[in-house]
Every structure is written in structure tokens, then in C-alpha cells.
Amino acid sequence: MGYVFISYENGDHDFAEALIYRLKNLGISVWEQPDVSHVPEERYTVIEQALRNASVFVVIMTPTARASKSVTYEWIFALGVGVPIILIVLKSTILHLRLTQLSRFDFTNHTTRPWDAFLDAVQKTITEVEPHRILLPRGIPSYIQEAIKALDNANPDDREGAIDNLAQADHPVAVEALVGALSHPLQDVRIFAALARGKTGDARAVPELLNALDQKDEGISNDAIIALGKIGDVTVAPYLIHTLYRRWDRSRYLSADAFEKMGDATVPVLQNILHEEIVERKIWAVQTLKEIGEAATPSLIQALQDKERAIKVYATGALSDIGGPATVPSLIEVLASGSEEWSIRENAAEALGKIGDTSAVLSLIQALSYDDDSVRRTAAKALRQIGSGAVPRLIEILGTTEGDVRRHIHTLRKQIGTPEAMSAINTKSRR
Length: 431
Fold this sequence. Notes:
Blueprint: E1 4-7, H1 13-25, H2 43-53, E2 56-61, H3 63-67, H4 69-81, E3 85-89, E4 103-106, H5 115-129, H6 142-150, H7 156-168, H8 172-181, H9 187-198, H10 206-212, H11 218-231, H12 237-246, H13 248-262, H14 267-273, H15 279-292, H16 297-303, H17 309-322, H18 328-336, H19 342-355, H20 361-367, H21 373-386, H22 391-398, H23 403-416, H24 419-430
Parallel strand pairs: 1-2, 2-3, 3-4
Helix pairs in contact: 2-4, 6-7, 7-9, 8-9, 9-10, 9-11, 10-11, 11-13, 12-13, 13-15, 14-15, 15-17, 16-17, 17-19, 18-19, 19-21, 20-21, 22-23, 23-24
């Protein structure tokens, strides 16, 4: 985890404490040397490791520090491992040639010390080394500062709590912190930040939300599915399908809802599922296509030709719910198909009645003469549902039919009961 390493001579301890206080007040971690006095030979090993992991190296330079072997060793080592160095000149000092080439701030005047400029430089350097860090403006609420600090806490519950606090805060710095947390070194911080931003529809959260899909914690995976649906980026659809197949029973409803939110652009992905062999998956695809609506009509019409009866039943029901003129010709074709099961033809007749398009009237009248009683009854019901729009055709056909069909038509006109239908009945009665 990134932090600031401060190098100074013991005589400058009070100033170093003031510096540490200001850094921590901005949510910046400062490395504190552990007590290794009982193992003196490990001191340099500990320091070297700390220097390698530091985000910024700050050296407080005074004549005493200039002469200190420890301080000199530390800044030379920091240079060698490539840690960014910022120099504070606390007392006038003849600097080593290498130090003159580094960024430095003159703190020799007690009344005009450039604290703001120095702290800004530290924050900027940290954000360059660690992109997830943000610059904390002066005066932001303390609870936001504390939440940002807690993102680096050793306790995972505290880190999750920090994300929740930032997500609930109505403040631009909190949003910026969550966006920065999407690239945090800790995976749990990245994922919880992605879930928080995903709930708002922030597309920047997508990469980490995709990682969240693979989490063993199903609550996290489910929340990721919901967030991806909210964002609506159709390019994630294949990842959702992969998760769906891996966790079928526990994610299919959430996945369907996500696809519905993504809308028309997901139709090709769902249509591909209709070519698979597993019936349960195909039924899921048909039901999801139904929720998408009119744009799914061609795919659902294609599903009417599926070899599996269940797919035809669900596709017919879906087309019935979607409705519209585009669905009618294919349903008429199913109704008239001599090679189709009667139950499927009955479903088609029911769908045509629900849709109510008058272009289906002739086919429904013809179905009154079919051998299957269920189909005949359903066709009659469909004609009643179409209502007055069916009357002209019924009157036209009445004069050319005999037997049961004629009786069905006569009964239907009575049941429809429009003035036109009743007039035709009375005319026939007088004849």
C-alpha cells in the first residue's frame, strides 16, 4: 500500500511531527518505522523495503541532516529505486549536487512556509504513482476524509463500510474517490466501488463489474448483474450469458431483467441461444425476447419453427403478448398448418384473437371447420374478441357455407351483437 516515507535528522523531530499531522489530515499514509532495536542488523533491511514500497520520499534538509549518514543513505537509496523525491529545505544548507536537481520547497522562513504548495505537490505525485488516489481539496467534510482514509484500512469490513459511506455522500469528492477506487490495489475495494458506481449507471465501473461476476459471493455477483443492466452496455451481454450458464438457477431472473434493460441491441445474442440444444435455455431466451418487445418479433417468429413443442408454445405466447401486424402472418401460417399439432394450432388461434387484427378473420373462420373441437372453439372465441371487425367477413361467408360452420357464424354474429351483425340476422330471419 502506498505511503510517504519521511527522512529527517532527530533534531528536526518536532517539524517532522507537524508535517506528519498535515499529511494524515489529508488522508495520506505515512510510514512509521517499527522498533527493531532488539535486532540492529535488520534496521537497514526494514528501511530498504519501506523505501521500495513508498509512493513519495520526503527529505527534511538541514545542515545536520546534510551531514547525517542515515539521511544520506536513505535519499541515495530512494533515488536508486526510483521513488519520487520531494525536498524540504528547513534551514539554509549547501545541498548535494544530486539534490539540487530535485523538486524542493523553501521552509527557511517561519512566517511564509509554502505548506499548501508542498502538500499539493505530494498529492499530485501520489496520484501519478497510484491512480486510485484523489487530491483532497481543503475544507471537505471530515466524514468524507475519514472514509477515503479507510479505503486503505487493513480491516476489509472497514473498507466496505468506507465505500458505503462514500456512496451515500452527496458530494463530488466522494464520487471522485469512488471512481479513483476503481483502480485501487485491493480487489475488494475495486469491486465494491464498481458496485456503488454501477448503481448510478456509471459506465466506468464496467471492467470491475465483470470481475465481480466471477466472485464466489453470490450476493456480489448478483449485484454486479443488476448494475450491468442499469448501465446498459450491450457489449457485456456475452459475459452475462456465461454467468447465467454457470449459475442458472440463481441468476436467470436477474439476467433476464438486465437484458430487458439493455433493450433491442441484445436481440442477436438471445437469438443465438435459440440455436442451442438445451430446451430450458431456449425457453429463457424466448421469455426474455418477449420482454424486449417489438424488436424481438422476427426472432420469435423464427422460434415458431423450432422442433421442440415447448419452444413453439412459448414463442406463440410471446408473439401474442407483443402483438402488432408483423406477428399475424406467421401465426396464421401455424393455425393453417396441417402438419402442426392441434394444441399448437389452438395456441395460434388464441393469440390471433388476443391481437385482434382483422386480417386474421378469414383464417379463423376457416378454422371453424377443422376436425379438432378445441381449435374450433378457440377460433370462435378469437372471432368474438375481434368483434365488429369480424362482422363483414362473417356476413360475406354466411351465404357460401352450410352445416355446422353456418350455425357457428350465425351464433357468432348474435354474440358480437353490433347493429350490423343484428341487421344481418334479422334479414336472414325474414328470408
